[in-house]
């Protein structure tokens, strides 16, 4: 019990002390994790597990979309990508097709890796 509490406190402190760039990276990592768990849920025939984790992935992408800084022209491109990913996640949730989630994962990994590179070039610890 104490170990779980200590880990929860560590995780909470990590989030509270993270920079905006680190938080963005954490969100990408979380979306990837939940998407992977959704695939496992489908493989196990666990509809609830797959649904719950697809929804978690969707909420992260919705947060990215909501918080886009619309002052920059590139935000339109990100908005389009996020809209596409959300559409594919809704489709995956209704059809339970692993191939759709794998496609979403490829996009999320590319975006995460690009973000890591931006952080490196900006001298932000990854």
List the helices and strands and how they pair.
Blueprint: H1 2-16, H2 20-44, H3 47-66, H4 74-95, H5 98-121
Helix pairs in contact: 2-3, 2-5, 3-4, 4-5
Question: What key phrases describe this protein's structure?
Answer:
mainly alpha; 84% helix; Four Helix Bundle (Hemerythrin (Met), subunit A); 5 helices; 126 residues
SSE series: HHHHH
User: What is the CA-atom radius of gyration, in angstroms?
Assistant: 16 Å
* SS strand fraction: under 5%
Secondary-structure content class: mainly alpha
Number of helices: 5
Q: Identify the CATH architecture.
A: Up-down Bundle
Instruction: Tell me the CATH superfamily.
Output: Flagellar protein FliS
Largest sheet: none
Number of structural units classed as domains: 1
What percent of the residues sit in helical stretches (DSSP H or I)? Answer: over 70%
The CATH topology: Four Helix Bundle (Hemerythrin (Met), subunit A)
CATH level-1 class: Mainly Alpha
- The low-pLDDT segments are none
Distance between the termini: 31 Å
Mean pLDDT: 92
Choose one word for the global shape. Answer: globular
* Strand runs, count: 0
């Amino acid at each position: 019990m104490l170990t779980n509490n200590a880990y929860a406190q560590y995780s909470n402190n990590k989030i509270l002390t993270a920079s905006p760039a680190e938080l963005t990276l954490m969100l990408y990592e979380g979306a990837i994790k939940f998407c992977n768990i959704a695939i496992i849920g489908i493989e196990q025939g666990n509809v609830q597990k797959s649904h719950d984790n697809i929804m978690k992935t969707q909420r992260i992408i919705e947060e990215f979309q909501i918080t886009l800084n619309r002052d920059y022209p590139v935000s339109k491109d990100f908005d389009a990508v996020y809209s596409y990913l959300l559409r594919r996640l809704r489709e995956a949730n209704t059809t339970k097709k692993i191939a759709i989630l794998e496609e979403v994962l490829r996009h999320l990994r590319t975006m995460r890796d690009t973000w890591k590179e931006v952080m490196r070039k900006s001298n932000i610890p990854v």
